[in-house]
Design a protein that fits this description.
The protein has 18 helices and 37 strands. By secondary structure, the protein is of the alpha+beta class.
Amino acid sequence: ESIYNSMDESKEYNLSLEVVTDGEPVRSLCLIKEESSTEDEHSIVTGSQGGLLSCLSIPSCTTSIQPGGDGTRHPHNITSLLSVESGGYVSGCKDGVIRIFDGAHSFSGELKGHENAVTSLAWLPLSCSDDSSPDKELLLSGSWDGTARVWSLSQMECMAVLGGHENTVSVVGLPPLDGSIGRVATASAGIAQGNSIVDHKVRIWHISPSAGSYQAKLVHTVANDHNGPIRGIAFDPHTNHLLTCSNDATVKIRDLQGNCLTTLNYPSDGSEPMLLSLTTLHNAKVVAAAEDGHAVVWDLVHHTHRLIPHPSTVWTVLALPKGDFATACHDGYTRIFTLDATRTAPTQQIQQFQKASADSKAKSNSGPTPEEIAKLPKWEMNALTQGRSEGQVQIFNKNNKAIAAQWSDVSKTWIEVGEVMGTNQNAGQIDGVSYDHVFPIEIDVPGGGVTSLQIGYNNGENPFVVAQKFIDDHMLDQNYLSEIADYIQKRAGADGNTPTLGMTDAAAAAPTPMDISTNTSTTPTYQHLPFTTYRSFENGTEPKVFNKIINKCCEFYDQETASTTITKDHLTTTLQTLSDTLCATNRYHATSIPNSQLTFISKLISQWNIQHVFPILDISRLIALHPDASKMENQYIWESIVSSTIEKCQQMKLDPTSVQGTTAAVAIPMMSMRLFTNCFRGGGGSLKAVSSHLDRILDCAELFAISENKNVRLSVATLILNASSYIKSSSAGTTSSTADHILSIVGTIIGSGLYESEATVRVLVALGTLLLADDSIKVKAKSLHMSSMVDHAGSQHGEKAKAVAGEIQLILA
């Protein structure tokens, strides 16, 4: 403790300054020195969820939005910022690109290599004795793609990749060892296993020069000492300690091997919010950002702590000179806090900030407003509302009061329980259905838009089951499963106590620490449109199922004349190796599929008879979802796989008798459509291959669109959905003929009346997504009189189909 300045225990942090820039949630901060600034002058660069950079000058309090000009706007939310010692700063973005800005805020270059959002940036100091490197320090980056990367800014190249992490990676540089060995600490978010998230790890790496580049060596790992995903990592140069924060509401102070020395617990009465980031101050304090709307300050000398309430989620915290710190808040404000009474904000401003924080909390605890009550179904009409299960709770408007009623399955009536009172901040309803907890989830979409959703959860339910149903209902990316489930667990709490019935204003509730965005654009937004990710067919990774596929391949091998160049042992060994890799889905970030195995599969698809090739297509479908197999470097192999598969489909068109009366008559259409579908969802290589052959693939989809088999129909519908999503999100755009082709297939499908409800919904979502891609597509759809077809299809296939059809009608209006 003697290394710290002595501090008066009675001093507390107070608001010094608060500034709103572009009004979007503030997601990242960094501290820079302007070229002409004095010793007491500095600037804070902020990155917003809307992709805008802003600069706040201290102490002049002047702000500049997009100080580098219009060309510096990011296409997605700015997830991390890092200052450059020589001037300028570096940004990490959800699009996976690292951008570099000079001291004048001008864009000066970019680094590409990550395949997902860049969420963490840090510097790796190099030894002074290392004369072989032109860099004094290297740039570190961590990403959702499960890797950390080491970059040279002088060469603008990636020097090393630190792989094998469990999902999101946080990075920090440590002091170098003697000689030329650099040290890096990384932390991972973990993976879903059963109903929990495990394998969140702290790793220590040695980075050493190697033939003009750098070599990374993993030297130490500490696993699972947090009780949830690790969200942030920091190094304290004053104590030479490493620190991590987690979803379990704790900060762990560690030695430089990653071993835990002590734990700082969130100071509360039982709530355990996710801690999203942390920093250390020179005055022996640790500050963390909490998703429940607090900044947490621990004083390590006096062993005290303090919560500083904010009006919304605090995304990140930043250490400032003189023991001050800054917070980035979801309400769009950047705030600075200080211990120095001479730099404290005016009393009235502090009171306004405290009132805004208190009002936000109170609003989430209050009962329903008169406006909310007016929107509830009338109690007098309750007989027209059929309950779905015994004990279901529904909120009604009775004499301008919100009352709760339970459904009796025996009497087929609603039984009044009592008036809804605002005593539980989480309880509420979605579409008139009451839940113990209602949480907002807002998901970023390509182009900077946002989809705003709500998820309902009742005490005692399995969070993973609820999360999976939510993903299925809204056709979201399957990768959100563990994050949504973990969010439910943290927000709902583990005690399972049944809260008093109540309602909540979702906009006032603390937002989810996922990809939240507030859309201030005048562009209309829709609940179901556009579809901004890719669906996939993932079943088959159970060893028992995969073994059946292998057995079928071996059976067909004996009937294949083209297989004489491949031994049966080679076939069996290769497929079994692939089975071992593909069935271990929780290890995808840590496993690889050699090019030799991919080439082997491509060769089988090309050479085997059309009656025998479908189990190989089935395996290819699963390979496409493996991140290593489908990476950009393997595009040339995926080009061959996709082309050979298209040829098999075309063969069915040219010679239908070749599969007539065989399993292949259904299996080839189904497996080929699912392979193409999964190629969209895979990595850069498979996506590039399938998109470059999109028109030929649509020819195949058109061939199979009116199949008598419902599994084939669902496969075609999902392929069309992914193709439309690709067109909507692709910066390269698409040709009018491709869009026309999809419109033609959609018209054929809807007009056939063959498709089941789920497949119809996917086709409708595909159409709506496509219409939002370009105004010329809307004009074409109107000329085809698709409006009446859509309306009819929506009315025949349930509430969701009807809702999507309604949104399409608005687009076409």
